[in-house]
Design goal:
Distance between the termini: 46 Å
CATH class of the largest domain: Mainly Beta
Strand order of the largest sheet: 19-20-21-22-23-24-25-26-27-28-29-30-31
CATH architecture of the largest domain: Beta Barrel
Structural class: mainly beta
Strand content: 35-45%
Largest sheet: 13 strands, antiparallel
Shape: globular
Length: 702
């Protein structure tokens, strides 16, 4: 019961941004019907979680749709009749798998959609399959027909058509490596084998009962070669099911599989990534042509009072003014601001520019809005007053406002030369409480154990550039006490003592106590010095330098840290292990599709040296899907089960729910196996996260 409550809390914390999709994920996560794939995919930005029970298999999956044409899935399969060889509690075997599916052609009313996929693309290969499938929608009927290799093709309906190209594909290499083979990519087995099999599905979603689905499918798997210990009987290759959509986010299903098995599933699939920023257009100020007519004719001695009114107006709207400059005999006005609304440079110019135009005297001809981040200038936007007023009045378009304005890199601490500076009073405080779940999935002790937490946090902004953050974890419900440590590999235990940290931290523990000093080193150069308890397992001192050319799509950073391992109770005590670590990181933001690539080279926590590749899809609303992998000089034997570090992450910005929560979000960062190789320390406030979005590319991606 407690485990069910923890799982319900984990799924319940997901945001509920719904989509009315026609096609659900299959019972095991890849796009499809019940057990067979489909070329239909969910909209880009969809995230799927699901649990299914299909004896002798129980499956827990996550499925991400970073693009309309790409699906990435990861799952655990509990093989209930096969023992976990390292378990001390009689646990059954847990298989871990990654899947990828591509939609090669979108399809239309005449030509069907075409998809290709690889299931369980590496490691033990217990469920290894490949497929090509065509799908077509005919009114309320969704039909798919495909060819399967590997597990999807064990029925062997006909000879592998690729043998016409080469006889080498007749042999499909096995996966005799077992646990020692996990983590490797089994590309030498893809689309190989003597024979293949047909599969297909029909899904009827009647328009008069849109919440219901009737499903029939024909499998290519005859269950003659299964990873289960006992033979899996399959009197029939036909499956039948009923699906019910409880809401736009959640569905239930029951099915009758292979002629003798009753199966159940539940899925949650919110749309968290959309390519629309929260525009806030309805909140843009109206240009008041009659605003303060007397002031515009008055002498400069009334200047401070009117600028004070502008300051108060912006502050009330969530824009924080750091400094203002209006020369008595000049025609230019400059304002330095940060805000809790958006980083969209166009919206910032529209909002601040219109308010400024309402208050400024007629002699002002140009308005410069400077966005501040981390205490330094991030970007400067200069526009003519008449163009701001023309766009506000509908006489010019937003695109014309962008095209005829000047966007430039920040100039460090130029605000110190402003006429009115130090307008923000320090210290300031930010605080809140966020829910969290610490989980341990697929271990030899239990399949799923977790801890439901509340995490109160406080950030003190002591000056423009210096801040301190404290985060505490408070346990509400926990099953982590049943965990036992797992040893694999021979590297220093920098992460694989996860169970000891989770079970030893008690009901209240200190997660973070960190100081950050951010400062400009020059135009387009930024620096950071950090110290304190960085994360659950390490604390110390660190520094970072970032070069982010404003007009380029790339950036380069170098960080260096000296850290020490924390004690298991996560208080103020430290263990003996200490290490110097650091990385040179190259960032690249692609001009299309919101792709951000990070490549890091350096020394990791276990003193291994190597490279990390991180590829993410960022949506305009701030949501992010990403995958990563690290390969170091640690051998597979030294690393242990998994061979090298890899995983995925999802981030959802809470500003989509409440604009006042800009900068906060819910994140899921998951590794299938927490091992010691390729591990970085979470070393303070990343400079790229602060300044990376303030670039020329941001205005073109709006």
């Amino acid at each position: 019961m407690r485990r069910a409550a923890l799982a319900a809390c984990m799924f319940g914390m997901l945001p509920r941004t719904a989509y009315a999709g026609d096609d659900w994920f299959s019972q095991v996560g890849f796009p499809g019907a019940l057990q067979t794939p489909s070329a239909f995919m969910a909209p880009e930005g969809a995230l799927g979680f699901g649990i299914s029970r299909t004896p002798p298999y129980n499956t827990l999956y996550i499925s991400m749709q970073p693009f309309a044409w790409l699906n990435f899935g990861a799952r655990y399969t509990d093989i209930t009749d096969r023992p976990y060889r390292t378990s001390t509690t009689g646990q059954s075997f847990k298989d871990k798998a990654f899947d990828v599916a591509l939609r090669l052609y979108e399809g239309d009313s005449i030509i069907p959609a075409l998809g290709l996929g690889i299931i369980d693309l590496g490691g033990t290969g217990n469920f290894s399959s490949e497929y090509i499938v065509a799908s077509q929608r005919i009114f309320d009927l969704h039909a798919s027909l495909g060819i399967g290799w590997g597990r999807l093709g064990t029925a062997g309906d006909f000879e592998n058509p690729l043998t016409a190209i080469s006889d080498r594909v007749r042999r499909r290499p096995g996966f005799e490596g077992g646990l020692d083979n996990t983590g490797t990519v089994a590309y030498d087995s893809w689309f190989r084998g003597e024979n293949v099999a047909l599969f297909g599905s029909l899904v009827w979603r009647p328009s008069f009962l849109p919440a219901w689905s009737l499903i029939a499918e024909f499998e290519g798997n005859d269950y003659s070669d299964e990873p289960a210990t006992n033979p899996v009987e399959a009197p029939s290759r036909f499956n039948f099911g009923i699906g019910y959509r409880m809401s736009d986010d959640a569905s239930l299903g029951v099915s009758y599989l292979r002629g003798d098995t009753l199966a159940f599933e539940i899925g949650i699939h919110p749309l968290i990534g959309v390519n629309e920023k929260p525009s806030g257009k309805a909140y843009l100020p109206v240009l008041d042509k009659a605003a303060h007519p007397n002031y515009r004719r008055r002498l400069p001695d009334d200047e401070e009072r009117q600028l004070g009114l502008l300051y108060d107006t912006l502050h009330y709207s969530g824009f924080f003014v750091h400094a203002m400059d209006l020369a008595p005999d000049g025609d230019a006005f400059t304002i330095w601001q940060s805000n809790a609304i958006t980083d969209d440079p166009l919206y910032v110019l529209q909002f601040v520019g219109r308010h400024a135009a309402n208050f400024l005297p007629e002699r002002v001809r140009t308005i410069t809005v400077v966005s501040m981040a981390g205490g330094a200038e991030a970007v400067r936007i200069r526009a003519s007053r008449w163009l701001i007023e023309a766009e506000a009045s509908g006489l010019a378009t937003p695109d014309e406002l962008v095209a005829r304005s000047e966007f430039a890199a920040g100039q460090g601490w130029a605000l110190d030369r402003a006429r009115y500076t130090d307008l923000l009073n320090y210290p300031t405080f930010a605080y809140g409480v966020s829910p969290a779940l610490r989980s341990n999935i697929g271990g030899p002790t239990e399949f799923f154990v977790g801890q439901l937490l509340l995490k109160p946090y406080v950030t003190w902004q002591l000056s423009r550039s210096f801040s301190m953050t404290t985060t505490v974890g408070v346990s509400l419900l926990s099953e982590l006490g049943r965990l036992t440590p797992v040893r694999s590999g021979s590297l220093p235990r920098v992460r694989s003592d996860l169970e000891l940290y989770q079970s030893g931290s008690g009901n209240v523990y200190l997660e973070e106590l960190e100081a950050n000093w951010l400062f400009p080193l020059g135009s387009q150069w930024y620096g950071r010095i950090s110290a304190g308890i960085f994360e659950e397992m390490f604390g110390g001192v660190g520094s970072e330098v970032l070069y982010r050319p404003y007009n380029a799509r790339w950036a380069l950073s170098l960080n260096a840290n000296y850290v020490k391992q924390r004690d298991y109770d996560q208080g103020f005590e430290f263990r003996d292990y200490e290490v110097a670590t650091g990385h040179l990181t190259f960032y690249y933001r692609a001009p299309i599709e919101g792709i951000v690539v990070q490549t890091s080279v350096g020394r990791y926590l276990a003193r291994d040296v190597g490279v990390t590749l991180d590829v993410a899809r960022e949506f305009r609303n701030g949501a992010r899907f990403g995958v990563f992998a690290s390969k170091t000089d640690a051998s597979s034997a030294e690393f242990g089960e998994g061979s090298f570090d890899k995983g995925f992450y999802v981030y959802f910005p809470l500003s989509q729910i409440n604009k006042g929560l800009k900068g906060n979000g819910l994140s899921l960062n998951y590794r299938f196996l927490s091992r010691d190789g390729g591990q970085k320390v979470d070393d303070g406030r990343s400079l790229y996260s602060v300044y990376g979005h303030h670039s020329a590319g941001a205005i073109h991606e709006r």
